[in-house]
Amino acid sequence: MNQPIKVEKTLTINKPAAELYRFWHNFENLPHFMKHLKNVKVYDAKRSHWTTSGPLNVTVEWDAEITEDRENELIAWASVEGADVNNSGFIRFQPNPNGRGTEVKVVTEYKPLGGEIGNAIAKLFGESPKQQLGDDLRRFKMLMETGEIATTEGQPKGHNRS
After folding, report:
1. Residues 6+ apart with CB under 8 A from 45
2. Helix (H) and strand (E) counts for the chain?
3. Inter-residue contact 49 to 61 (CB < 8 Å)
4. How far apart are alpha carbons 107 and 87 in whole angstroms?
């Protein structure tokens, strides 16, 4: 049976909700910090086309539609019929109760490519959905708070010279 997988993650970012909402709502910004997302093409105010790399570098594509949009608070979406991966979810931007920053919560649900077998294969290749979402949110936080994403990729390794 192909059970949907639900993943959720919450993180506090030291920026106002309006700024975070505006940046995220421009979906073409998302590939800057979402590692597996190759491209997002916005068709209009409601619909967009998403291209991502799945396990074993398989390209996965779908069209999505915004199902709810509350300025500076919430963006909800769902894939439309014919998607490679049926998915839906939301991102909520809520001022932190202590008055510092914004609590950002992402909840996404999808049916994995190839069902449970596809999910097991993805995990074998280090593609845990919860880990991936957490990593993407941490990169979003870095980008919004510092203007860049710190990385060690591509840096030379130190040599032990005795």
Report:
1. 66
2. 3, 7
3. yes
4. 11
The three-point CA angle 121-125-40 to 5° equals 95
Placement of tokens 């639900």 in the chain:
6
What are 95-153's pLDDT values in tens digits? 998 888 999 999 999 876 665 556 655 555 556 778 888 999 999 999 999 999 887 65
Q: Would you state the structure tokens that stand for residue 156, as one six-digit string?
A: 């030379």
Per-residue pLDDT tens over the stretch 12-32: 999 999 999 999 999 999 999
CB atoms within 10 A of CB 75: 20
CATH class (in words) of the domain with range 5-146: alpha beta
How far is the C-alpha of 139 from the C-alpha of 128, rounded, in Å? 16
Distance CA 139, CA 130 (A): 14
Nearest Cα to Cα of residue 27 among 102, 77, 82, 94: 77
Q: What predicted TM-score, i.e. pTM, was given to this entire model?
A: 0.83
In angstroms, what is the C-alpha Rg of the chain?
A: 17
Distance CA 79, CA 4 (A): 14
Residue 131: left if φ>0, alpha if ψ -120 to 50, beta else—which one?
A: alpha
As given in the structure block, the two tokens for residue 101 are 């920053």
